[in-house]
Structure formats: C-alpha cells, structure tokens
C-alpha cells in the first residue's frame, strides 16, 4: 500500500506564545509551549474547551501567523501550509457535489490520470470504503464521511497528520470504531499523528504520549507516557490508573473556585 513517508517529520515547538487582540486588551491563547514530537510518534493532546488546542494545530498546519517562538518540521521552519502536513477537522469538510473518489482526489494536483486513480483507489481501500467510491457525501454515515476526510488528508503522503477533535461529532460507538480505525491506519502508514481531543479515554487509547494542557493561558501542564501495548484494554488496571491521573490534573484546576466557595 502507500507506506513510504516522503517527508521528514520531526516536529519541534519551542517557546511558542500566541495571543489574539481583543477590543481593549488581548487573549493569551498559548504560553511557553515546548514540545518535540518524533517521527512516527502518536501524540494526543487533551485540554478543556478554549485552552488553545486548535490554535496550536493551526500554527503547526501553517494556517496561523503572528506568534512568538519557533515551530519547525524536519528542521525547516513552518512558513505556511504545505503538502508535508495533512489535517482532519471535527466536520468532514467534504464537497457535497463531488463523489467520494472525487473528494479524495481533490487535493492531488499535477499527477497523471492513471496515477491519480491508483492513489485514490489505494486510499479508499485504506479506510475501507472501496465500495463507496461513486457515492456522494449525503449518502454516507458520519463515521464514513470522516473516513473519507482521513483518506483525503493522506493522499499526498504527509509525514505529519494533524487531527483536531476528528471524532467529536460522532456517537460513542462509532467513535470507538474510528479510534480503532485510525490506529490501524497509523500502524500501516507510520505517519506521525497529533490528535487533539477532550476525551481522556481516546487520548489514552491512542497516544504514545498524552499532553495535558491547562487553560487560559494554554500551557503544557503535564506529559504522560503511555507504554501499554496496543490495542489497549480500556478496563485494565493500568489504563484506569492513567485515566485517574489525568482526571486529577483537570480537577485540580477546575475545582479550585468550587473549593473556595465552600
Ligand atoms: N481568531 C481568533 N480571534 C480571537 N480569539 C481567538 C481566535 N482563535 C481562538 N481564539 C481564542 O483563543 C483561545 C483558544 O481557542 P482555541 O484554540 O480554539 O481553543 P480549543 O481548540 O482548545 O477549544 C480561546 O479563548 C479563543 O476564544
Ligand atoms: Mg478546538
């Protein structure tokens, strides 16, 4: 299949600081973020809503400018969007008037026709949707549409895939299936993956490391190494202990105002 990585993908984030102006002052979205992600690693980032997760991914994707600090991929500073990075969002963002195969082919420019077809075919097989090549997005379930979005994000063989709450709009069971699916794809493709989620179990099920972010301003509060073998058993003692640790990180922050009130 499409297993060769064509881009160096060591991601290095140093002293990253990002603020957005407001009418009378500014919102500090990210403060002093330092994070190095190795080639082929799966890193999950968890944090409360508004803690800067999407901003961080958008900076790595090259979609956000005007920050302090340095962000580089494979020793090259990130200076804008590029084919070395793929991105998947919470909404599938498929074009409704195109078929599944046309949507997957959409980002593939400048290739000979036969090669385009081969690449699209391979990627539809990768996400298990070969039989739906001619379908339109409205004919797909939410999980299937998100698989198409994943296939589309991988056609240019990016070294790094950025996933911003990709399963956030799916029901609980589909979500678990999609987590298994992304794991299978990661194991097949060895693409470096950075997955942002507010689902602690999802982060622990998938990540080699779980980065816990604090909110306002968004900082890296703690990094937890998850050395459990895959596929992980969510009810195992070790998994449950790690879940407790991450919950404790959140509640130590969230419960402060409540503790003061009683
Ligand atoms: N374009 C923008 N303009 C102003 N403020 C923004 C913008 N994007 C994000 N923010 C603010 O930055 C903070 C982090 O947002 P975001 O990265 O979307 O968080 P998350 O993805 O963790 O929910 C929030 O307080 C949000 O309101
Ligand atoms: Mg977000």
List the helices and strands and how they pair.
Blueprint: E1 11-21, E2 26-37, E3 42-46, H1 53-61, E4 68-73, E5 76-77, E6 85-88, H2 100-105, H3 113-126, H4 142-154, E7 160-164, H5 172-189, E8 192-197, H6 200-206, E9 209-214, E10 219-225, H7 237-254, H8 256-261
Walk me through this protein's architecture:
- It is a single chain.
- With 262 residues, the chain is an alpha/beta fold.
- The protein contains eight helices and ten strands.
- The model is unreliable at 1-7 and 258-262 (pLDDT under 50).
- Helix 6 crosses helix 7.
- The protein has a six-stranded mixed beta sheet, sandwiched between helices. A four-stranded antiparallel beta sheet has the order 2-1-4-5, with helices on one face.
- The N and C termini lie far apart (59 Å).
- A hairpin with a 4-residue loop joins strand 9 and strand 10.
- 35% of the residues lie in helices and 24% in strands.
- Magnesium ion (MG) binds at residues 53-54, 164.
The largest sheet has its strands arranged as: 6-7-8-3-9-10
- Evaluate the radius of gyration: 19 Å
Range of helix content: 25-40%
Number of domains: 1
Beta-strand fraction estimate = 15-25%
Number-wise, the strands total: 10
Q: Order of helices and strands, N to C?
A: EEEHEEEHHHEHEHEEHH
CATH superfamily: P-loop containing nucleotide triphosphate hydrolases
Shape: globular
Measured distance between first and last alpha carbons: 59 Å
| Low-pLDDT stretches | 1-7, 258-262
Which CATH architecture?
3-Layer(aba) Sandwich
Largest sheet: 6 strands, mixed
């Amino acid at each position: 299949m499409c297993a060769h990585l064509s881009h160096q993908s060591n991601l290095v984030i140093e002293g990253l600081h990002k603020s957005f102006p407001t009418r009378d002052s500014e919102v500090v979205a990210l403060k002093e973020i330092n994070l190095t992600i190795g080639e082929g690693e799966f890193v999950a980032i968890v944090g409360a809503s508004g803690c800067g997760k999407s901003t961080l991914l958008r900076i790595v994707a090259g979609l956000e400018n005007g920050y302090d600090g340095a962000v580089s991929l494979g020793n090259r500073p990130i200076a804008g969007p590029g084919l070395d990075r793929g991105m998947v969002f919470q909404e599938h963002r498929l074009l409704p008037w195109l078929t599944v195969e046309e949507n997957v082919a959409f980002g593939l420019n400048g290739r000979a026709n036969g090669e385009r077809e081969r690449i699209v075919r391979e990627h539809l097989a990768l996400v298990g949707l070969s039989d739906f090549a001619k379908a339109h997005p409205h004919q797909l379930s939410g999980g299937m549409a998100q698989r198409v979005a994943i296939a589309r994000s991988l056609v240019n063989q990016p070294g790094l895939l950025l996933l911003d709450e990709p399963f956030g709009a799916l029901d609980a069971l589909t979500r678990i299936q999609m987590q298994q699916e992304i794991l299978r794809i990661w194991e097949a493709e060895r693409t470096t993956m950075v997955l942002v989620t507010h689902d602690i179990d999802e982060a622990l099920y998938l990540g080699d490391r779980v980065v816990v972010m604090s909110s306002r301003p968004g900082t890296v509060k703690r990094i937890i190494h998850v050395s459990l073998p895959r596929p992980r058993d969510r009810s195992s003692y070790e998994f449950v202990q790690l879940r407790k640790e991450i919950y404790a990180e959140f509640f130590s922050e969230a419960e402060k105002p409540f503790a003061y009130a009683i």
